[in-house]
Design brief:
mainly alpha; 6 helices; 0% strand
């Protein structure tokens, strides 16, 4: 069940990323929702989960963006393994620690992405330090929202199930 939910979140984040990039002109400030999902999944699951989530999210993002397939998958999988390894060694549990790891993960992803493009003599994307900083800030904001939602969903789900159970019991009363 957890794998299905994780795959659905990855697909949803890649679809939202591709749709927002096409609808809005995001040339000056980019947000990388699949990277936020990779970081949060690797923090909770470890390096192996980070590897697979990063590979899948990056591959889907490469296919949807129309660029060179595999570069984003490599960058995101290396970020997932690194952050997952840090999570198992350092035991980050608070919300602020998780949010603080999104910014270096963003910088690491951009450096790996551009570095691979420069190594293969392909048209490397232009990267500015200000854009990377903006992307890191936007990714931290998206992580803040994602963590808040993920902390509220279990309570909401249990309240919804209780309400459904109460309605089912009241429906069958005969007095």
């Amino acid at each position: 069940m957890r794998v299905v939910v994780l795959v659905a979140i990855i697909v949803l984040s890649v679809a939202a990323q591709a749709t927002s990039a096409r609808v809005f002109d995001l040339t000056s400030a980019n947000i990388d929702l699949p990277l936020v999902v990779v970081v949060l999944a690797s923090l909770s699951g470890g390096p192996i989960v980070g590897l697979w989530v990063g590979t899948f999210a990056g591959f889907l993002q490469d296919v949807m963006s129309g660029g060179l397939v595999g570069v984003s998958g490599l960058a995101k999988s290396l970020v997932g393994v690194t952050i997952g390894g840090l999570a198992t060694r350092l035991m980050f549990t608070g919300r602020w620690y998780r949010l603080l790891l999104i910014a270096p993960a963003t910088i690491m992803s951009v450096v790996l992405f551009v570095g691979v493009y420069r190594l293969i003599s392909f048209a490397a994307p232009a990267v500015d330090g200000v854009n990377v900083l903006q992307q890191a800030v936007l990714n931290v904001a998206a992580g803040f929202v994602g963590i808040g939602v993920s902390e509220q969903v279990p309570g909401l789900w249990s309240r919804l199930r209780r309400r459904r159970l109460v309605l089912a019991i009241q429906r069958w009363r005969t007095n």
